[in-house]
Amino acid sequence: MGAVAIALIVVFVVLVLLVLFVIGIYNALIRLRNQVDNAWSQIDVQLKRRHDLIPNLVETAKGYMKHERGTFEAITQARSQAMGAKTVAEASKAEGALGEALSKFMLVVENYPDLKANQNFLNVQEELTSTENKIAFARQSYNDQVLSYNNKIQMFPSNIISGMFAFTKRDFFEIEVAAEREVPKVDFS
């Protein structure tokens, strides 16, 4: 075996290792992208459940809150916008507005003690609270997956492979309503 044959074998082995390296990084990027998509679908399931519960909550309250038409319209409009969101950024903004409308609704409910005692209303409210907790958990999981994915596509050497195959950065599902970011104020006086 001559020096040329050994050189060809070395070059071939290096090329095979390089191809395996690229395949490994590409597959890792695909896995992370699919995890992000799966995490988003988990949020989407919970948001759909939330959207389905809201009409039940509103219908239960309408009989008691006859003079609160503006409140009902705000929730209905916010729900429609949230259901029509196409991107993560749009969903973040619309869901924040829906959360704000629901918060205002719950404040108005405080003025109706008979409604607060209604078993149907309490059941739907409990389901909605449970769903809100699931949304928060799913949002955290989604954002963790997005962080891993974005790190992978931006860090060397995988950034070279991600650039070659057009992997793009994903958006976080962030709170858009300023009131949700504020620390609650506690007053013991």
Give the structure's gist in a few sentences:
The chain has helices at residues 3-62, 69-83, 88-109, 113-117, 119-154, 158-164, 178-181. The chain is mainly α and 189 residues long.
Mean pLDDT: 89
Order of helices and strands: HHHHHHH
Whole-angstrom Rg: 25 Å
- β-sheet strand percentage: under 5%
Task: Name the features.
189 residues, mainly alpha, 7 helices, 79% helix, 0% strand, disordered C terminus
Model description:
By secondary structure, this protein is mainly alpha-helical. The chain has a domain at 41-138. The chain has helices at 3-62, 69-83, 88-109, 113-117, 119-154, 158-164, 178-181. The model is unreliable at 183-189 (pLDDT under 50). The termini are far apart. Helix 1 runs antiparallel to helix 5. The protein is built from seven helices and no strands. It is rod-shaped, with a radius of gyration of 25 Å.
Describe the secondary-structure layout:
Layout (H helix, E strand, L loop, with lengths): L2 H60 L6 H15 L4 H22 L3 H5 L1 H36 L3 H7 L13 H4 L8
